[in-house]
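User: Show me a protein chain along with its predicted structure.
Assistant: Here is one chain, sequence first, then structure tokens.
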Amino acid sequence: MITLKGIDPRMIANNLTPYEPTHPGELLKEEIAYRKLSQSSLAKQMGVPYTALNDILNERRPLTANTAMLFEAALGINADLLMRMQLKYNMQIVRQDKTLANRLAEIRKVAAAL
């Protein structure tokens, strides 16, 4: 986290958390549309079921490392970038989970008392 004297760290642009996380499928879907590729032809080229590809592009399924590598081969989009996007998406979703937040607070209390 970046801090500057006299400025609330939550107001520094690099410290902001997006309101909605960005799933890598959103970027991939835009790229496929820009290139005027059909999802079915891309699925066939990548050797994955159309439904699996469509689920990723519509953010219903997470991107796996294997699938990220297939996208890299087919579209030239770096698999590391896609996997970092997926990780950040997953972490933001988890951080928004109130039940987990309460559980973590309890664990931190116990850990602090040790």
